[in-house]
Amino acid sequence: MLNLFITNEKLQLFVMIPVLLGAFYVAWRIICTGTDTPRMNMNRSRPRIAACIALTALGTICLAYIFLSHLEFQIKDASLNRILVWISGIYVSFFLYFLLVLTATDILCLILRHKGNRKMPARLFKIVSAGMAVLLTVTGVMHARSIQTRHYDLTAEKTLSAPIRIVEVSDLHMGSVVGTAHVQRVVDAVNACRPDLVVFLGDQFNRTGAEDVVDAEAMFESLSHIRAKLGVYAVLGNHDPELNSEIYQKFLLESDITALDNGVLEIIPGSKVRRTEIRTLINASSKGSEAVAAPKTSVDGAIFLAGRTKLAVDAERVPLTKLLDEAGVMHGFDSGAKAGGKKPRAAGSGPDRNDYYLMVLDHDPEGIAEAASCGADLVLAGHTHRGQYFPATVISRFLYGKGFSYGLARTPDENTGHITTSIVSSGAGYFQIPIRVGTDSEIVCVDLRFDSHK
After folding, report:
1. Other beta carbons within 10 Å of 57
2. H or E element in which residue 102 lies
């Protein structure tokens, strides 16, 4: 419910009210006396008061542009828009941390004064607050540009035809703040992992209209150099254009990426005795299921890769059960079966549920529960950014819960005991404000193996 509140575009504007009040508070504190408790000193020089008013006005404009550009009200010139978003984002970051530290020092002043310390170094506290805000902003901008690689080693409960290395890239957000240099850093980090399979988990673009993309051709050219033996696939996120839009089709073509939009693939990892095979069982358009499923198979050790699209709360989102049914993939277990049991929930001519590994790509971690109910073995997701910067990191964990805001979690099915593993990435890019504080820009490298002694 809280997630619905936060993501509603009209209510996001409401968030500006306390933020603007904070801007006025900062301006008021700047023109307060230098000692004792904060109080207005109207004897300050007029130029200083005017400067504070101008600072508040600048902050208000920057805050407004950050919000309005997110709601797709922005200057149409992409280069100018990028400059304005960067200036606004850095200012908002400075303002946020200045406000937090200044408020903390004011509370400290009040506590010390209550204990009898009448003269407080308020001016020093303001200098320290400004210095810490600058430090956090500068380090946050620099840290956001550094790509970390998070490794996970997973052991499949089912036999695979061969081990496989998967690299997950989520929330790249090409556009206002993420440009060619950052995309190249991501490509270099991905190739350094020597992946078998690369998956992009949505929000490749910063905005659904994609008008804020600068140097799109150069970014797509960089992405085309990703090397993966089993290919590169992408699902759509809530910030991406429609699949059939010109910019998204250009992205797929020039980046050499295949969309898995409401689609299911069968992947048989190659080994010494079996060559690699990839078959598209079903691949739907953004308007619904239009492709016809390929003939069903029952190859042991296969991986079925299901790509989801749209947010979990979207009424138009195709149910995962329907997607798997149309692809001829068995899903779920009989209510009497336990984890690893041999009873499929429904009869059919598809492969036995225990003979293959079901992996779900979903931009939204809210879809993990649905995937778990279908007996998915692994879910890869993004969307949350892990909050991207403090204190949003705390809010993100509260909204999604531990394990579903970030990192690895294991979700057991209440009826069967089957355990679904999920990994939520903090994202390779960043949204609107070009900083990361308390989180990393990352790609996720998953080594999926099986226990050959079982």
Report:
1. 12
2. helix 78-114
What DSSP designation does 76 have?
S
Instruction: Return d(Cα 407, Cα 404) in angstroms, integer.
Output: 7
CA-wise closest residue to 160 among 276, 262, 333: 276
Work out the widest C-alpha separation in the chain, in whole angstroms: 86
**DSSP for 22-51?**
HHHHHHHHHTB-SSSS--B-TTS-HHHHHH
Question: If we measure between CA atoms, which residue out of 357, 406, 452, 438 comes closest to residue 152?
Answer: 406
8 A C-beta contact, residue 339 and residue 307: no
Which residue, 259, 186, 182, 262, is CA-closest to 214? 182
For 66-76, b/e burial (b = at least 16 CB within 10 A) is bbebbeeebbe
DSSP state of 318: P
Region of 161 (left: φ > 0; alpha: ψ -120 to 50; beta: rest) is alpha
Between CA 284 and CA 324 the distance in angstroms is 12
Gyration radius of the chain over CA positions: 25
Q: What is the mean pLDDT of each run of 10 residues along the chain (454 residues)?
A: 40 55 67 49 60 71 68 70 83 85 81 70 77 93 95 85 90 91 96 96 87 87 94 92 91 93 81 46 44 50 85 85 81 51 43 74 92 92 92 86 88 82 94 91 93 56
